[in-house]
Amino acid sequence: RMTGQETIYFADDFPEPVKSLNIDAGIRSCLSFSMVVDGKGYGSLVFSDSAPTRRQWNHGDIETLRTLARLVATAATRANNIEQRERAVSGLLLRDRALEGISQGVTITDDKAPGTPIIYTNPAFAALTRYTLEEVVGRGPLSFFDADVAPRIIERMAQAAAAKKPWRMETSLKRKDGTSFLDSMVTTMIVDQKGDITHSVTIHEDVTEVRQREELLLEAQKMESVGQLTGGIAHDFNNLLTAIKSNAEDLRDDLKDSPILQSQAEIVLEAADRGAGLVAQLMAFARKQELQPKVVDVNALLERFTKLLRSTLPAHVDIDIRNVARLPAIYVDPGRLETAILNLAVNARDAMADGGTVTIETSLKTLDADYVAEHIEVQQGDYVLIAVTDTGTGMPADVVERAFVPFFTTKEVGKGTGLGLSMVYGFVKQSGGHARIYSEVGLGTVVKIYLPALDQAAPSEDQPANGNKAKPGTGSILLVEDDPIVRQSISGKLTRLGYQVVTASNALDAIETLKSNPHFDLVFSDVIMPGPMNGADLVREVRRRWPAMNVLLTSGYTESTVLGKVTLPADVHLLSKPYSNSELAKVIGEAICGSSGDTA
Ligand SMILES: Nc1ncnc2c1ncn2[C@@H]1O[C@H](COP(=O)(O)OP(=O)(O)OP(=O)(O)O)[C@@H](O)[C@H]1O
Ligand SMILES: [Mg+2]
């Protein structure tokens, strides 16, 4: 196989640069064989002679050396081949290790064999499907799919085979134990020289959790945008209703002499009240209701509240209260918490037409990093959990999904507005907690509300004694309001209720008035006012100078006004607009008499 040519050189005609090197080394003549194997050159083998006379290379020499050269060339070729093969093998081993080690599942099918069996799989795919490697090899890929999706997959495979292009698919794959996971697959076909598909390589990835998380995020975003829309509408209606209510009330009060007109004003007022009720629930859902949070002992609140619940629920519904002995306190609006629990209890009642049990359980729950990972909108930490469980009809999954959405109801017209759970959701969210529904058709429902636990234990329920100075309807009020029309209207109402009223048009004015006469029974101020001080600042200043003074704030919409731009001083009552004359009378009376505004 060696077709090398031999050449004899003498010192005179050595080619440069060999010439001077050789002559220096005393070499006078040499015989060179070029080594070429299968047309590929491997170099030359050179025999040198240093005899001072020209060496006579005879035929015998040449033959012997040519054989030697041939042997050397063959050995060199062989060594080269082995090295190449070793390199190839270690490349294969590396690819093999990579396939065995990657976290995605890999399957290779033999597409020429009937049923296109899997001929290779890696440990990741075995782990995904909970089969052993041996169990996977030999199976047809279709055996991993549910019977109802198999036809769709066969169709996709055929389309992909015709196009010879990689294809993707996301579908559920069955595990050995019967459970399934959402598999994201990419399949690439291997084509031989003739263009026929010989094998298919598929990469598998379990995307169950990723997709679930995406869905939760979408759900949260949807609730967020519905909340914004609702809040915007509610805000505008709130303003309109305030005007309607206030004017209808004045009409009713002033039309004593014409009973027909008076009763019409009454109808307007009733309708406005109903509207205000709806708007309040919408505001609650939109997390824009005015909350008056207090440090609350949930167990004590439930104990008091059970009496009211008992009278709301029919006799064939049992109430079971289960409390964990020592619970941390929470900081929420107690009145709204009661409304939320009442809404849940009423839903439970409606779901148990034939009777059953409502269980209200409280406990301390730590929501850890794992829980938070699954429920994106939740903050890690300690929560007081209030779980309201019923033994009623339960809800199918699609009802659970929409139950918190405002106006979603399955009840007949007139029976439900679909705002009960929306209020619960908004209230809990606004209080820094979160709400969840678990329901099983035919078994019942549990709604869990988590409210952030305070670092302190619940306070004792004794209210501090209060130095009452006045009775409702007597006493003097300093009314602070910048809008002259509103100021006049409220002043008139307060006067009609029996109070002596002095007015101020801004906070500085009010302070000046107080300096000359600090003996008012109440400072009643709007929150948002032009000038250097708003209502909240005024309250702080009044408390600093005249600590015993009663104060009461009033405000309309709170989104950015009260809760965003202004920080309310602790424990100050806020009368939210729109309010009725009777509400005004009640709240003013409470503020002056110091009896707590607790509805419980
Ligand atoms: N405990 C429960 N058992 C079964 N279904 C429930 C339960 N709670 C709520 N639902 C379902 O969720 C829907 C929405 O409840 P939600 O309290 O928001 O409104 P509603 O009860 O229909 O009306 P509203 O509370 O405004 O009177 C209900 O119509 C009902 O289908
Ligand atoms: Mg309801």
The number of helical elements comes to 17
The CATH class of the largest domain is identified as Alpha Beta
The largest sheet, given as strand count, sense and whether it forms a barrel, is: 7 strands, mixed
Secondary-structure-based class equals: alpha+beta
- What's the structural domain tally? 5
How confident overall, as mean pLDDT?
A: 86
**Can you give the helix content as a percent range?**
40-55%
Total count of strands: 20
CATH architectural category of the largest domain: 2-Layer Sandwich
CATH superfamily of the largest domain: Histidine kinase-like ATPase, C-terminal domain
Radius of gyration: 44 Å
Distance between the termini: 108 Å
> What general outline do the C-alpha atoms trace?
elongated
Bound ions, cofactors and other small molecules, one mention each: adenosine-5'-triphosphate, magnesium ion
Percent range for β-strand residues: 15-25%
Explain what the structure shows:
With 600 residues, the protein is of the alpha+beta class. It folds into five domains: 6-92, GAF domain (Beta-Lactamase, 2-Layer Sandwich), CATH 3.30.450.40; 102-206, Beta-Lactamase; 215-276; 294-457, Heat Shock Protein 90; 476-593, Rossmann fold. Helix content is 43%, strand content 24%. It has 17 helices and 20 strands. Strands 9, 10, 11, 12, 13, 14 and 15 form a seven-stranded mixed β-sheet that branches. Strands 5-4-8-7-6 form a five-stranded antiparallel β-sheet. Strands 17-16-18-19-20 form a five-stranded parallel β-sheet, with helices on both faces. β2 (29-37) and β3 form a beta hairpin. α6 (208-254) packs antiparallel against α7, α9 runs antiparallel to α12 (420-430) and α14 (507-516) runs parallel beside α15 (535-545). The model is unreliable at 460-470 and 596-600 (pLDDT under 50). Residues 343, 346-347, 416, 420 line the site of magnesium ion.
